Amino acid sequence: MLIILAFIIIFHIVSAALLFTSTIDNAWWVGEGFSADVWRVCPNNTNCTEIGEGYEGYATMQAVQATMILSTILCCISFLIFLLQLFRLKQGERFVLTSIIQLMSCLCVMIGASIYTDRRQDIHRGNSWLYHPLSEGSYGYSFILAWVAFSFTFVSGLMYLILRKRK
């Protein structure tokens, strides 16, 4: 049982690290000499512009920002609740709240990455959007980490439900 708990703790910490990295780092959309994320656009390596109200699609980017921040916060809260529940609750009642909060984190990261994917695809359908001048590029590693974090938080949430029944 201790090995399972250690594995779950490590898995949860990795999930949180993936969420932090994907939310903060500037590599959601990359190309030759430029990068962009949910916070700023860098047409070259030295000149970065914060995404503000002047950008087309600003409300959409705010939705992505909010869901990614919320997913990171919920993941950290679920880890703290996990630690509290580990020592406070009797067997059979453990980790239900932790699982619910972790699955909410999973849902938030899925919504944020899905919105970003949909808006990014508008460029290729001919619709205008935030990074239109930088349309020639590809998804960066932060975007991929967001989807990996989605799967990690989903699996983690399910593991907490399964672990609830273990003795």
Automatic annotation (TrEMBL):
<dbReference type="GO" id="GO:0007160">
    <property type="term" value="P:cell-matrix adhesion"/>
</dbReference>
<protein>
    <recommendedName>
        <fullName>Epithelial membrane protein 2</fullName>
    </recommendedName>
</protein>
<keyword id="KW-0732">Signal</keyword>
<comment type="function">
    <text>Functions as a key regulator of cell membrane composition by regulating proteins surface expression. Also, plays a role in regulation of processes including cell migration, cell proliferation, cell contraction and cell adhesion.</text>
</comment>
<keyword id="KW-0539">Nucleus</keyword>
<comment type="subunit">
    <text>Interacts with PTK2; regulates PTK2 activation and localization. Interacts with ITGB3; regulates the levels of the heterodimer ITGA5-ITGB3 integrin surface expression. Interacts with P2RX7 (via C-terminus). Interacts with ITGB1; the interaction may be direct or indirect and ITGB1 has a heterodimer form.</text>
</comment>
<dbReference type="GO" id="GO:0060914">
    <property type="term" value="P:heart formation"/>
</dbReference>
<dbReference type="GO" id="GO:0072659">
    <property type="term" value="P:protein localization to plasma membrane"/>
</dbReference>
<dbReference type="Pfam" id="PF00822">
    <property type="entry name" value="PMP22_Claudin"/>
</dbReference>
<dbReference type="GO" id="GO:0003093">
    <property type="term" value="P:regulation of glomerular filtration"/>
</dbReference>
<dbReference type="GO" id="GO:0007015">
    <property type="term" value="P:actin filament organization"/>
</dbReference>
<dbReference type="GO" id="GO:0009986">
    <property type="term" value="C:cell surface"/>
</dbReference>
<dbReference type="InterPro" id="IPR003933">
    <property type="entry name" value="EMP-2"/>
</dbReference>
<dbReference type="GO" id="GO:0008284">
    <property type="term" value="P:positive regulation of cell population proliferation"/>
</dbReference>
<dbReference type="GO" id="GO:0005634">
    <property type="term" value="C:nucleus"/>
</dbReference>
<keyword id="KW-1003">Cell membrane</keyword>
<dbReference type="GO" id="GO:0045022">
    <property type="term" value="P:early endosome to late endosome transport"/>
</dbReference>
<feature type="signal peptide">
    <location>
        <begin position="1"/>
        <end position="16"/>
    </location>
</feature>
<keyword id="KW-0812">Transmembrane</keyword>
<dbReference type="InterPro" id="IPR004031">
    <property type="entry name" value="PMP22/EMP/MP20/Claudin"/>
</dbReference>
<dbReference type="GO" id="GO:0005178">
    <property type="term" value="F:integrin binding"/>
</dbReference>
<feature type="transmembrane region" description="Helical">
    <location>
        <begin position="139"/>
        <end position="163"/>
    </location>
</feature>
<dbReference type="GO" id="GO:1990266">
    <property type="term" value="P:neutrophil migration"/>
</dbReference>
<dbReference type="InterPro" id="IPR050579">
    <property type="entry name" value="PMP-22/EMP/MP20-like"/>
</dbReference>
<keyword id="KW-1133">Transmembrane helix</keyword>
<keyword id="KW-0963">Cytoplasm</keyword>
<dbReference type="GO" id="GO:2001212">
    <property type="term" value="P:regulation of vasculogenesis"/>
</dbReference>
<dbReference type="GO" id="GO:0001913">
    <property type="term" value="P:T cell mediated cytotoxicity"/>
</dbReference>
<dbReference type="GO" id="GO:0019901">
    <property type="term" value="F:protein kinase binding"/>
</dbReference>
<keyword id="KW-0333">Golgi apparatus</keyword>
<dbReference type="GO" id="GO:0045121">
    <property type="term" value="C:membrane raft"/>
</dbReference>
<dbReference type="GO" id="GO:0032060">
    <property type="term" value="P:bleb assembly"/>
</dbReference>
<dbReference type="GO" id="GO:0031410">
    <property type="term" value="C:cytoplasmic vesicle"/>
</dbReference>
<dbReference type="InterPro" id="IPR004032">
    <property type="entry name" value="PMP22_EMP_MP20"/>
</dbReference>
<feature type="transmembrane region" description="Helical">
    <location>
        <begin position="95"/>
        <end position="116"/>
    </location>
</feature>
<dbReference type="GO" id="GO:0045766">
    <property type="term" value="P:positive regulation of angiogenesis"/>
</dbReference>
<dbReference type="GO" id="GO:0043534">
    <property type="term" value="P:blood vessel endothelial cell migration"/>
</dbReference>
<dbReference type="GO" id="GO:0000139">
    <property type="term" value="C:Golgi membrane"/>
</dbReference>
<dbReference type="GO" id="GO:0070252">
    <property type="term" value="P:actin-mediated cell contraction"/>
</dbReference>
<dbReference type="GO" id="GO:0044854">
    <property type="term" value="P:plasma membrane raft assembly"/>
</dbReference>
<dbReference type="GO" id="GO:0001787">
    <property type="term" value="P:natural killer cell proliferation"/>
</dbReference>
<dbReference type="GO" id="GO:0034394">
    <property type="term" value="P:protein localization to cell surface"/>
</dbReference>
